[in-house]
Amino acid sequence: MSWIENISSDELVDYLAQLVQALKSETYETNALAQFLLKRALLSPRVAHHLYWLLIQVLPGHSPQNSDIDDITIGEARSHRRLQLLLRALIATCGEALRKRFMCQQLLVKNLHSIAENIKTCKESHRMRNLTSELEGLHAMLQDTPTCLPLSPSLEVKGKIR
User: Fold this and answer.
1) Range of the structural domain that residue 81 is part of
2) 119 and 104, same structural domain?
């Protein structure tokens, strides 16, 4: 574990997906890997951002930090619980500004998903009109509360430029 403590945050981000997967195999909730990831997330907003979205992606449900798990094995339930605790710890310790940014990003993703579902279910002849109308609402939201993209914390979305 000592070799990984010396790598830069940029390099750590490259390995985060594998490290989150490795957390699934850990035996205890408070393990060295989880503590290391949380510590590095507190030192680097970029690491925190990527760790947050990797945990959201791995955990099931619309609210992964609070979701219940049905129809899975005991081992899977334990690994989900471990990841859920890490996600909750990250949210609780990351600070108000980053927490608000995460919530704005989640709202953006939720709205985009909802728009996509609505467009899929409407008649093909109405799709463009419905898409335009739905995206206008999203545009207004982004103008009021710009946020960075979940894929890249360095890209901020402010709505369309006129």
Assistant:
1) 9-94
2) yes
